[in-house]
Amino acid sequence: MDEIKTDASPKAMLECMMLIRAFEENNKALNAAGNFPGTCTSIGQEASAVGVVRALVKNDLILTNHRSAGHLIARGADPGRILAEIMGRSTGYCKGKSGTLHVSAKELGVILTSTIVGGELSLATGVALSQSVLKRQGIVACFFGDGAACEGIFHESLNLAAMWNLPILYVCENNQWQAYVRRDETMLTDHISKRASAYGIEGITVDGNDAEAVWAAARDASARIRNTKKPILLETYTYRLSGHFEPDDMAYVDPEELAEWKSKDPISRLKAKMLESKALTSNDAAQMEQRVQRAISDAVSFAKASPFPESSQLTTDVYA
Ligand SMILES: Cc1ncc(C[n+]2csc(CCOP(=O)(O)OP(=O)(O)O)c2C)c(N)n1
Question: Is residue 319 part of a domain?
């Protein structure tokens, strides 16, 4: 049974980031071995996913993009069911009909992942409108990339949300890449958050490789959204440490830039901080690693043993 997770203790966030990393590395390995679809992994962006998602409460809703495994796992998704979905098995979140690019996990309040870049922005704005009209408590968190922030749909969505006081946290994961194009080839400024002032809303940039800082910023921002019902734009400044879509040898990335960002790896960073302050022992860390590896091998066994959907199911659940 899936359970929404809200534990934001440093230990819980660290283990969750380790699980996301192991899940994504495993997807890369399965793809390299053949007979497994390519996926857009979120390696390097775990602190952004975990920090924001763990700042939400149970009745909040999430809409995300093509790089969604971290958001789903942070919310409490079962890695086995995500993997089953990627492998087209009937035990997956959408009974094997979506792959990673269109996942919806209603039980976790994850309304959709959108493979149409920017698509989630207008849909999330619509969901926030419905939360507002129906006087529901939950706010909406909408994840998108810096590339999506260069599309017209970003401007229309934020302007409308500002005008209509919609309870939405727009989270731009600025990972410096837009597929194979460097961010600085498509925009002259470094920060997406600056655009918030154009709509009369608050814009914040946070170090997206610092899980605790992301969590604090997202928690404060979501509290303000609940109180004021006004949208906020939160930019998590981070880096995509792996390819855009597997397989990807990243030949287009400057090795020095990559090495610099690897030295800011969000997982090693939090782990080192916790070991130093004695909030974590090396034994704790080893146990976490074991639990994570067990979870991944259980996920693989579960997905591989799961059946494909029956052909009679081809047209069921296709329309909402
Ligand atoms: C409307 C649309 N245009 C182009 C694509 C192809 N595409 C998929 S991901 C991507 C890059 C998106 O960059 P960004 O929004 O920064 O997200 P990131 O991949 O960096 O997480 C592109 C161009 C698409 N899926 N949808």
Answer: no
Q: How many helices (H) and strands (E) does the chain have?
A: 10, 8
Is ligand 1 within 6 A of the CB of residue 183?
Answer: no
Beta bridge partners, 170, equal 142, 233
Residue 287, amino acid: Q
> 212 in a domain, yes or no?
yes
- 320 belongs to a structural domain: no
254-304 pLDDT, tens digit per residue, is 999 999 999 999 999 999 999 999 999 999 999 999 999 999 999 999 999
Among 46, 63, 117, say which to mutate for ligand 1: greatest number of ligand atoms within 8 Å of CB: 117
Q: Measured between alpha carbons, how far is 165 from 183 in angstroms, rounded to an integer? A: 30
Q: Which two tokens stand for residue 85?
A: 């979905």
Where do runs of H (alpha helix) occur along 199-310? 211-228, 255-262, 266-276, 282-305
CATH number of the domain that residue 238 is part of: 3.40.50.970
As a whole number of angstroms, the distance between CA 102 and CA 88 comes to 12
The count of other CB atoms within 10 Å of the CB of residue 104 is: 16
Number of independent structural domains in the chain? 1
pLDDT in tens, 77-96: 999 999 999 999 999 999 99
Write the DSSP string, 116-153. STTHHHHHHHHHHHHHHHTT-S--EEEEEETTGGGSHH
Ligand 1 in reach of 241 Cβ (< 6 A): no
Mean pLDDT estimate for the chain: 97
71 lines ligand 1 (CB under 6 A): no
Residue 312 domain flag: no
Q: Whole domain around residue 254: which residue ranges?
A: 10-101+111-302
